[in-house]
Specification:
Elements (H helix, E strand, L loop, with lengths): L5 E4 L2 E4 L3 H7 L8 E5 L2 E5 L3 H16 L1 H8 L1
Antiparallel strand pairs: 1-2, 3-4
Length: 74
């Protein structure tokens, strides 16, 4: 765990992420990150949780109609 200090950025308050964290998350200046509430606090991620929900719905759909997709693939 690493403690990060809040800092004034213009009229806002922000956190500066260390280079190691940016590299681990594969983030660069200008990228978008997503904050989501989790059971144990807040999660910071470069992945949009809405896209994950859509992917899961698509997987369920494909699983449900697996035989139809196989028939169409022939």
């Amino acid at each position: 765990m690493q403690a990060l200090k809040l800092t004034q950025i213009g009229n806002s308050v922000g956190v500066v992420l260390p280079k190691e964290v940016l590299a681990q998350l594969k983030l660069q200046k200008g990228d978008t990150v997503f904050l989501t509430e989790a059971a144990n606090g807040i999660t910071l991620s470069p992945y949009d949780p809405a896209v994950e929900e859509e992917l899961n719905a698509g997987r369920e759909f494909m699983k449900e109609y697996r035989d139809t997709f196989r028939a169409l693939a022939k």
